[in-house]
Amino acid sequence: MPDYKAPVRDISFVINEVLESEKLYQTLPGYEDATEDLLNAIVEEGAKFAENELAPLNQVGDEQGCTWSEEGVKTPEGFAEAYRQYVDNGWPALAASPQDGGQGMPNMLAMCITEMVGSANWSWGMYPGLSHGAVNTLEAHGSPEQKEKYLTRLVSGEWTGTMCLTESHCGTDLALLRTKAEPQADGSYAVTGQKIFISAGEHDMTDNIVHIVLARLPDAPEGTAGISLFIVPKVNVNDDGSLGERNAVHCASIEEKMGIHGNATCVLNFDGAQGFLIGPPNKGLNCMFTFMNTARIGTAMQGLAHMEQSFQGALAYAKERLAMRSLTGPKNPDGPADPIIVHPDVRRMLLTQKALAEGSRAFLYFLAQQGDVVSHGSEEDAKAADDMMALLTPIGKAFVTELGFEAANHGVQVFGGHGFIREWGMEQIVRDSRISMLYEGTTGIQAMDLIGRKVLGSGGKMLMAFAEIIDEFCAANSDEEDARFVGAVKAAKDEWLGLSMEIGKAAMENPDEAGAAAVDYLMYSGYVTLAYFWARMAVVARKKIAAADGDTSFYQSKLMTAEFYFERLLPRTETLKKTMLSGADNLMQMPEELFAI
Q1: CB atoms within 10 A of CB 593
Q2: What does the alpha-carbon distance between residue 542 and residue 480 come to, in Å, rounded to a whole number?
Q3: In the chain, what are the helix, strand and coil shares in percent, each to the nearest 5?
Q4: Quick check: is 488 in a domain?
Q5: Could you tell me which residues come within 8 angstroms of residue 447 by beta carbon, excluding any fewer than 6 positions away?
Q6: Do 548 and 464 reside in the same domain of the chain?
């Protein structure tokens, strides 16, 4: 298994030099303590935990998996002990509100920890990771009594949480869900139904699990307008906060999966389980989006985690593996062959991994910052940040996970035949990463959300707001030294706006045009978005080199990687432009009966 070394220097570069976090957080009430020194110190401590405690368990989790019995689910060796240390160190409470027992740090900082935890051991990280969404949902929509009974234990990590949406017959189409909730005399509800694909739905790491469940009331209208949201604990909680009897929710089985074997993906049966309504009746999907948006950003982090993990493994191997000679003459004349890092095609794969990982890191940390503005900024700033998140979250979730899978495959390819062998751990990264493009809304679902609801649905206003940010950056960095990056970003942004209008016009005549263009449009949008963040990083790096400020080699690497991105990866938009404009006919004209074997 590749050794994991947390990219602390690059994380610091992004949060402090590119995103200027301290400057932002001094303007957000409640975040004034988030100074550069404190942010760096917490990142460094998180790195130690990820490297020393979680990374050694990654291959263990893959090989042992989880074990189901009627008594419950047993997690792989060392998982429960690592979780106890995680809780003892206070990591679950990092970004939660102080009034609920949290430390009140920015969510962006929590996402830094999520990246390192996930890169070290994604399967393990899912157990505490899903609790963040449950915490956010209860903070936003829970009653005072619900917060007192459940929230503080979730914040501390004493309990974990899940989200229970999917059913076997409905998948993403939640309008078809059948789980029902019957009102009881004591004000609770009897929840009955079956949920599938519930990550961390049952385990031996905590005494209780708080399930956040979608279900229908007896008089609910059809479709998504008739969905309500409920708290259903694994173990009922007494009024004094002590644990009572086991609730009527049980894990019927755990799925046999392609990857993330160390996390239990459960089928949960709710047999009249005691539940409690969160928020207004029949508004459950609205409340659930608080959870889902959190989970989608977390899933985007999975794409970044697997980029980083695979890059580190491939880079170490490429520096050590000897094969053939360099085309320009021996680089290791005293050895029998040169290390494969001298070969252009190997460098193509390594630089692709590096450029995608570092660009995605800046993008996703910026997205997490927007969440902090939503929760702590002025009303005007919060509204603008919320719209920004609405536009960029589907890009982050889908684009970054698609590229995470690409980067994972490059890692296997760098290893050659050894990459196909389990002992090296590279094929595990591919298997673990594949799910990220499926859960929390597939790439196609995210693409339709982006083009349908966020771009066309807002009349282009959300996209224009981001375009204005890009324009401001370009205007502020018009120096000749930065023109190669800034000019390319401005041109890409202008074309993005034009394509959006063209697709919108076609969709007005035939709605299938939007669906046909959606995924290509999302991927195009992602490459342009990453170009903006790479331009920002390149400008900072160039100025640092000019001022002889800091580690020149680090900044030179940034500039060279930026050049690679703009010359080798951003041009992918040309193909995407042609395919998205090719229309719906080449997809829809074939009659169903001609789809034959």
Answers
A1: 6
A2: 12
A3: 65, 10, 25
A4: yes
A5: 394, 398, 518, 519, 521, 522
A6: yes
Write the single-letter amino acid at 309.
Answer: Q
Give the predicted TM-score (pTM) of the model: 0.97
pLDDT one-digit tens code per residue, 254-289: 999 999 999 999 999 999 999 999 999 999 988 877
- What does 185-237 look like in DSSP terms, one character per residue? TTS-EEEEEEEEEEET-S-SSSS-EEEEEEEB-TTPPSGGGG-EEEEEESEEE
Query: Residue 540, Cβ neighbours under 10 Å: how many?
Result: 19
pLDDT in tens, 409-455: 999 999 999 999 999 999 999 999 999 999 888 999 999 999 999 99
490 close to 474: Cβ distance less than 8 angstroms: yes
Alpha-carbon distance of 504 to 513, in angstroms, equals: 8
| Structural domain boundaries, residue 233 | 160-282
| 440 is annotated as an active-site residue | yes
The Cα–Cα gap between 419 and 264 comes to 26
* Residues 96, 396: Cα–Cα separation, whole Å: 23
| Rounded Cα distance, 67 and 253, in Å | 10
Q: Are residues 177 and 142 in the same domain?
A: no
How many domains does the chain contain in total?
A: 3
| 164-178 pLDDT tens trace | 999 998 877 777 899
What are the C-alpha distances in Å from 546 to residues 18, 178, 482, 485, 543? 16, 63, 12, 17, 5
Could you say which of 51, 358, 440, 513 is catalytic? 440
With respect to residue 305, please indicate whether it lies within any of the assigned structural domains. Answer: no
Tokens of 252: 């019927």
124 and 178 belong to one structural domain: no
Residues 211, 76 share a domain: no
Question: Could you give the CA distance from residue 134 to residue 162 in angstroms, rounded to a whole number?
Answer: 7
d(CA 109, CA 321): 37
- Same domain flag for 552 and 486: yes
Name the burial class of residue 516, with classes exposed (0-12), middle (13-18) and buried (19+) by CB atoms within 10 angstroms of its CB. buried
Count Cβ atoms within 10 A of the Cβ of residue 143 and give its class: 0-12 exposed, 13-18 middle, 19 or more buried. middle
Q: What are the φ and ψ backbone dihedral angles of 235, each rounded to 5 degrees?
A: -120, 130
Q: What is the 3-state secondary structure (H, E, C) of 33-88?
A: CCCHHHHHHHHHHHHHHHHHHHHHHHHHHHHHCCEEECCEEECCCCHHHHHHHHHH
CA torsion 351→354→357→361, rounded to 10°? -120
